[in-house]
Write a structure and sequence with these properties.
Elements: E1 9-20, E2 24-30, E3 35-40, H1 42-47, E4 55-60
Antiparallel strand pairs: 1-2, 1-4, 2-3
């Protein structure tokens, strides 16, 4: 399990795909079936030893959320 963390939005999931191209894009499927894509450094991806199917946590910490409409 993930140890202590100050962020409140933590989603458990598994890695669906990993794409490396200057940075690493990690596609994660949460336990609830939602998909989250994270962009992280390749060094971080290597340090975390990410691989498809590995259990991971998407930690979401933002200072604000914007809302828009198509009107």
């Amino acid at each position: 399990n993930l140890k202590k963390l100050s962020a409140r939005n933590v989603l458990e999931g598994k890695v669906l795909s990993i794409k490396k191209a200057g940075f690493t894009e990690v596609d994660i499927e949460t336990k609830g079936g939602e998909r989250v894509v994270a962009s992280i450094t390749t060094a971080s991806a290597d340090s975390l030893k990410l691989e498809v199917g590995k259990k991971v946590y998407a930690v979401i910490k933002v200072s604000n959320v914007m809302v828009g409409t198509d009107e």
